[in-house]
């Protein structure tokens, strides 16, 4: 298998803040490689250093065998970069934008075919700023594909989308991978990482704290149980925190979510509820997910503002 991106000991500092701290990883040809982590973890900075849009302070980076700090122009011929809306002139039509961006490259592909593949052929004469959020994101994907790239970078592409448009964009990204283009993306949606990525790197405080397939990351939580329930009274957060087998407890959307270790954890929680004369409704044991992996690695939930 060919290595498309190779990063060794990459660091980037903004003043006193070490935003990327000695990160090493490789991305292989034909995979969807995802980076997840809380806001401010350093994902965008890391991606921008790899893209050559930001200058790294130290470490080595190779993209398609080239150094983005030296060969940015050549790399940009062969990779797809996702643009922000602000990069487009105002009141530009979809077809005009694709024509314009195609003119920037030596060997542009057939953008009309790309529009068809993305289900946008009827929008060729529509103004970009009149499209729905999902359609606009697909236009940005089409723009990132105008040069038939070997690798595309996608940063938080589904953040502003409703669930239906998000699923449509996932299908598009899978098709891009299935057509042989490597995809390097960042997301803060765990479900997106779980459903879409072949391998996931977890980033926290500028460091890479885990890297594996989703299945392997979740299997690494062997022996952890996640219980969710509602109670007919004050949620017994403090009492649960006294249980030695508890890893973490929080309230989420009106439910108590308790994670713990050991085969007797569920029994201990039920026993405690009974002692407190609380009736648990809808008591469920759930499959762990990537959020649980993050919690297990860091002791903190990944989402901002969560907790009790
Ligand atoms: P993420 O993409 O994971 O949310 P970022 O790479 O955007 O993380 O940010 C990492 C850290 O660097 C954050 O603390 C952020 O505030 C800081 N940061 C990002 N860009 C800049 C910048 N241009 N100047 C100074 N600090 C920055």
**Tally of contiguous helical segments:** 11
Shape: globular
The distinct ligands, each listed once, are: adenosine-5'-diphosphate
Main beta-sheet annotation: 6 strands, mixed
CATH architecture group name of the largest domain: 3-Layer(aba) Sandwich
CATH topology (level 3) name of the largest domain: Rossmann fold
Tell me the total number of β-strands.
Answer: 13
Order of helices and strands: EEEHEHEHHHEHEHEEHEHEEHEH
Provide the spatial order of strands within the biggest beta sheet.
5-6-7-3-8-9
Distance between the terminal alpha carbons, to the nearest Å? 46 Å
Structural class category? alpha/beta
> For this entry, what is the oligomeric state of its chains?
single chain
Q: What is the overall pLDDT average?
A: 91
Q: Please report the first level of CATH classification, the CATH class of the largest domain.
A: Alpha Beta
Q: Which segments are poorly predicted (pLDDT under 50) over 5 or more consecutive residues?
A: none
Estimate the strand proportion.
25-35%
User: CATH superfamily assignment of the largest domain?
Assistant: P-loop containing nucleotide triphosphate hydrolases
The figure for the number of domains is 2
Rg value = 22 Å
**Percent in helix:** 25-40%
Subcellular location: Cell membrane
GO molecular function, one term: ATP binding
Protein name: ABC transporter ATP-binding protein
InterPro entries: AAA+_ATPase, ABC_transporter-like_ATP-bd, ABC_transporter-like_CS, ABC_transporter_ATP-binding, P-loop_NTPase
């Amino acid at each position: 298998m060919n290595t498309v991106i190779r990063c060794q000991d990459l660091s980037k500092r903004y003043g006193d803040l070490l935003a990327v701290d000695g990160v090493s990883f490789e991305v292989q040809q034909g995979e969807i490689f995802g980076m997840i982590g809380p806001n401010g973890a350093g994902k965008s900075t890391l991606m921008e250093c790899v893209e050559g849009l930001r200058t790294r302070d130290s470490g080595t980076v190779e993209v398609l065998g080239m150094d983005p700090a030296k060969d940015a122009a050549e790399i940009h011929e062969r990779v797809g970069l996702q643009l922000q809306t602000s990069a487009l002139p105002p009141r530009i039509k979809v077809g005009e934008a694709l024509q314009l961006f195609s003119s920037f490259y030596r060997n542009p592909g057939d953008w009309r075919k790309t529009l068809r593949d993305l289900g946008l052929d009827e929008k060729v004469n529509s103004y970009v700023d009149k499209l729905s959020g999902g359609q606009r994101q697909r236009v940005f994907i089409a723009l990132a594909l105008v040069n038939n790239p070997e690798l595309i970078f996608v940063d938080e592409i589904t953040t502003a989308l409703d669930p239906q448009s998000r699923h449509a964009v996932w299908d598009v990204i899978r098709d891009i991978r299935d057509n042989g283009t490597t995809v390097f993306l960042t997301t803060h949606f765990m479900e997106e990482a779980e459903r879409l990525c072949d391998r996931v790197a977890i980033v926290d405080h500028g460091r890479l704290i885990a890297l594996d397939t989703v299945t392997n990351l979740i299997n690494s939580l062997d022996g952890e149980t996640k219980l969710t329930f509602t109670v007919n009274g004050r949620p017994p957060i403090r009492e649960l925190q006294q249980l030695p087998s508890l890893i973490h407890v929080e309230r989420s959307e009106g439910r108590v979510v308790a994670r713990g270790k050991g085969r007797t954890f569920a029994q201990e929680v039920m026993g405690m509820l009974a002692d407190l004369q609380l009736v648990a409704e809808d008591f469920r044991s759930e499959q762990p997910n990537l959020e649980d992996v993050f919690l297990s690695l860091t002791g903190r939930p990944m989402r901002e503002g969560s907790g009790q």
